[in-house]
Each structure stands twice: as structure tokens, then as C-alpha cells.
Design brief:
Radius of gyration: 33 Å
Structural class: alpha/beta
Oligomer: single chain
Shape: elongated
Strand content: 5-15%
Helix content: 40-55%
Number of helices: 19
């Protein structure tokens, strides 16, 4: 593999020679120049991963060269060197854009360690850029798995509202994907290159919540040793997602209202406000209108949050999305677990379609992950589904006539209904039906004949 390229800029020939030897031994490619002008010419002709630059040089000094390189859009990681440096010089170099500062004379290990640290930082920076692009792609609303009419209408709403700063309130049951919708709004907005910070309002203890949201100054309370930024400051220019906003205590609801009205926050223990530019997306599984009526949620805050409203339907109201989601999750867990599940049997899919999904998409995802792990062939079948799902969709409701007390008659009616349902769910496959019913194939045939079931 080709070594990283390093440009050495120093007016002392001995220093250039020594650094070249040290760096070449470590596998780096080096180019040496003796002054700032030569360095600018070299940087224009070739791309260097690193530039090692002396500060004191005749003509153009190192700090001037650093400023000029940054002005010209140089992307190299620049490390400054000096035998005459002070802390002020080092700080000045870092302000202009140097990665690090190293004092002469230095040991060979010292310069190598500095470059290795710079390499690691650059690797992480590139990785973060890549991950950011991955995240943006993943949360584009066009990539959310759905084809149902009500979800397509939500996608259309996202495309209309994403560009604006207006507050959004997402209402939906637990597990419906409220955070996914919030991320879709953020990553389709002009704020996508800034932070998206999710906060579960019910997961942070009440005594810590204000400090987490708004920060605190040193000495504000017993453990406040340092001044700390809150999450609203961290999200400046971006989006804050307040999940389960109904769990916010009333005292903090007032302060959140102030953020929405004034675009400013106040750290705990501080007297001066701090301006913030944050879009707020809130979500709740509870009926906030009901919470307002009960006096648990401020009416004025509710209206401030409810500028743009998205109601996320439960999975049972968009069952046409289930096959798409199932295939998506099979593919996802094939990659994650290293399986090669090709699909799901029609019987198993029918059970998934008939189930009520109180835990919504999150529950479906967990069920498919379990099934992918348990499947012993290339397909997920009914035997790989949780017992709770099988019982819920096959358990019959047998009506008992008023005045009827015979356990024998009721049991026969229940048994007949169970057999009919099991045969229906297995498409008439008696072997599979017997397995579902937990009886032998022979017993099933006998009972079918007894009850006149074809």
C-alpha cells in the first residue's frame, strides 16, 4: 500500500534530512522544501496528507504560510514546529488551523506519535462524514418502509414541512416509529448538517432534566464543578426531538415554552439568557388534549407544540405494510446475524397479517429477528413464530347459549372451531394443522370425521 505523503518545510537542511530519514523508516513518502514560497508551490502541485512546518523561517514565516495554505483551501493536516516557541505561539497556530504544535528539539518517537495521532483523527473525521451520509440516506422519508395510503400521506406532509422551522408534534402509539419520522424531517431539511438530538423526557430523572436540557454554570448546585452546556445549546442550528414530551414536569414545561417563544435558554444558576436556533419536534404516545384537560400538561405549551401535527397510525391500521416490513427485516437480520433466509411461508405471513400488533413495528421487528435466528431452513414458518402470536390468531371465540351448562358440548364446539381454524391457517395441510393443535395426525383425522369437517 502506498505510504502517506508528508511535506517538510524547514530552512535548516539538517532538520529536513533528519525528518526525511525518520519518516521514510515509518513508511511515509516525504518531500522537503526550504521556505514558504516553495511550500505553496509544492502544495498546489500535489496533495499531501500532512505538512510539517517550521515557524521561524526567512521571508514567509510558518504562521503566514499556515494562513495562506488555509486561505487556499488546503486540506492537509498541518503540524507546526519551533525551537523558539511559546504557549502563545502554539495557541495562535491552533487558532489559525494547525492540528498540533511540537517544540524542537524533539525525539523521533515524539514526531511519529504526533503524526499517528493526526492520522487517527483524520480517519475518524472521514468515518464521521461517511456515517453522516449513511444516516442521511437511511432517514430519507422515501426509504421508510411503507406503501399504505395513510403513510404515503405522511411522507407528503414531511416533504411539505421539512424546510420550515415550525414545531412539529407527532402522536402515535409506542413502537410506531415516531423517532424515525422525526429523523426524516430533520434529514430532509436545511438543518441536516447540524445535530439531531433525541431526548426521552421520561428517561431522565426530574432533578437532572433541567440541567441536561439547558445546562448549568459552575456552583449552581453541589455537584456543579464545571460550567456545562445543555442539549439545547448542543443542538444549536439543528433539531431537538423531545420524545414522550407529556412526561415533562410542569416546572420545565414553563421553561420549554420560553424557548419556543423567545428562542433563548437560561442555564441553571445563570442570570443571562443564551440565544439558540433550534427546531423542536415533540412526540407523545398519550393524548395530549386529555393531558391538558387533566391539568398535567400546559394548554399554552400544547398549542405552541401543535403547530404542525402528524398522527402516526398503529400497524394494525396499515396491515398492507406488513409484508414489506417483514421482507425488510429479514434482509436486515440476514446481514446482521449472517443468515440466508429467503422468505416466509404463506401460513406464517397470514398469522402476522391477522395479529393485532399492540407493540407495533418494534414488536414486528423483534418477532422477525427471533424467527431469523430460529429458522432451520431457508424459510420462516409458523413454528418459528412466538407462541403468543399463534395462540392470539388461532384461539377461537365460541359463544355459549344462555341456559347451556354442558361442559361436554362447549368443549366439543371449542375443539371443532380450533380444528377449522388450524386447517384454514395451514391451507388445509393436515400435518401442519395437527402440529399447531398439538395432537397426532391420526387423532386429527378421527376428529375431522367426527365433526364432519372436510
Amino acid at each position: 500500500m502506498e505510504g502517506k505523503k508528508i511535506l517538510i518545510v524547514d530552512d535548516e537542511e539538517g532538520m529536513r534530512h533528519m525528518l526525511s530519514i525518520i519518516l521514510k523508516k515509518e513508511g511515509y513518502e516525504t518531500t522537503s522544501v526550504s521556505n514558504g514560497n516553495e511550500a505553496l508551490t509544492a502544495a498546489e502541485k500535489d496533495d499531501y496528507d500532512f505538512i510539517l512546518c517550521d515557524i521561524r523561517m526567512p521571508g514567509m514565516d510558518g504562521l503566514t504560510l499556515l494562513q495562506e495554505l488555509k486561505k487556499r483551501g488546503c486540506n492537509s493536516t498541518i503540524i507546526m514546529m519551533s525551537a523558539y516557541g511559546t504557549m502563545d505561539t502554539a495557541i495562535e497556530a491552533m487558532k489559525i488551523g494547525a492540528y498540533d504544535y511540537i517544540s524542537k528539539p524533539f525525539k523521533s518517537d515524539e514526531i511519529i506519535l504526533t503524526i499517528k495521532k493526526a492520522e487517527e483523527r483524520e480517519r475518524l473525521r472521514k468515518e464521521n462524514i461517511f456515517l453522516k451520509k449513511e444516516v442521511e440516506g437511511r432517514y430519507k422519508f422515501s426509504n421508510i418502509i411503507a406503501k399504505s395510503k395513510n403513510m404515503l400521506e405522511i411522507f407528503e406532509t414531511i416533504s411539505k414541512i421539512a424546510s420550515y422551522k415550525s414545531t412539529v408534534l407527532i402522536i402515535g402509539e409506542s413502537g410506531t416509529g415516531k423517532e424515525l419520522i422525526a429523523k426524516a424531517i430533520h434529514y430532509n431539511s436545511p438543518r441536516k448538517n447540524k445535530a439531531f438530538i433525541p431526548i426521552n423526557c421520561g428517561a431522565i430523572p426530574e432533578n437532572l432534566l433541567e440541567s441536561e436540557l439547558f445546562g448549568h454554570v459552575r456552583g449552581a448546585f453541589t455537584d456543579a464543578i464545571f460550567t456545562k452546556k445543555g442539549l439545547f445549546e448542543e443542538a444549536d442550528g439543528g433539531t431537538i426531538f423531545l420524545d414522550e414530551v407529556s412526561d415533562l414536569p410542569l416546572s420545565l414545561q414553563v421553561k420549554l415554552l420560553r424557548v419556543l417563544q423567545e428562542d433563548e435558554i437560561r442555564r441553571v444558576g445563570d442570570t443571562k439568557p443564551i440565544k439558540v436556533d433550534v427546531r423542536i419536534i415533540a412526540a407523545s404516545a398519550r393524548d395530549l388534549v386529555g393531558e391538558v384537560k387533566m391539568g398535567r400538561f400546559r394548554e399554552d405549551l400544547f398549542y405552541r407544540l401543535n403547530v404542525l401535527n402528524i398522527h402516526l397510525p398503529p400497524l394494525r391500521e396499515r396491515k398492507e405494510d406488513i409484508p414489506l416490513l417483514v421482507n425488510h427485516f429479514i434482509e436486515k437480520f440476514n446481514k446482521k446475524i449472517g443468515r440466508n433466509i429467503k422468505g416466509i411461508t404463506s401460513d406464517a405471513m397470514k398469522m402476522l397479517m391477522d395479529y393485532e400488533w399492540k407493540g407495533n413495528v418494534r414488536e414486528l421487528e423483534n418477532v422477525i429477528e427471533r424467527a431469523v435466528i430460529l429458522a432451520d431452513g431457508e424459510c420462516i414458518s409458523t413454528e418459528h413464530l412466538p407462541e403468543g402470536i399463534i395462540k392470539a390468531v388461532t384461539e377461537p371465540v365460541v359463544s355459549i347459549t344462555e341456559g347451556e351448562f354442558s361442559i361436554k358440548k362447549a368443549s366439543s364446539a371449542l375443539e371443532k372451531e380450533l380444528i377449522k381454524r388450524a386447517l384454514k391457517y395451514t391451507g388445509g395441510n393436515r400435518t401442519k394443522a395437527a402440529r399447531l393443535l398439538e395432537i397426532s395426525h391420526k387423532a386429527l383425522l378421527y376428529k375431522m370425521q367426527e365433526y364432519g369437517i372436510e
